[in-house]
Amino acid sequence: MLNATVLRAYCIVLFAPLAAFSQTLAVPVVAGAVNASSYSDPVEPGSLISIFGSNLAVVTQSAGGSPLPMMIGGTSITVNGLIAPLSFVSPNQINAQMPSLIDSNPTTFSTVNLVVNAPGGSSPASPLTVFGFGPGIFTSDSGGCGQAAAFNVAPDGTVSLNSISNSAAPGVALQALAWFTRVEGQVEHRSG
Q: Nearest 5 degrees, angle CA 37-CA 150-CA 134?
């Protein structure tokens, strides 16, 4: 009789804490999405975007390499139903590449629906303005304004960060970190 009593008490102690620690994950909320280089809109198909909000992911994690994964830490996004490659996820920000197959017109704006799918559920569809051509140039301070993130490339192949104190000399190539995706109606991914 004593052994059965001890066993019942042990089971109660063992299973009671599990209920106490269970939690419900919150549904993602998208506050907005912008071009990742300029932090403005519109975005273009194939470009890098930054999505801001809350409960977007349960981890903070970057992609491990190339090609970019379609899911990181249980989080994925869709744009008009197309899954987008991810480069970074966190509870308040996601960086991703807009699907290149999003229909857009190079002369008019259009709206697409962005949905974040996370362990807590799926966000309501969030409208995102798209334009057929909208190149972005990354900046040195990562703020979207100011000096371009550019590199001086010397004839011997030496590379250095371009700055006010280290400008490109005559005969030196300048390489800016830019993102262009559509040229004359053809989808092309170019960076650099």
A: 35
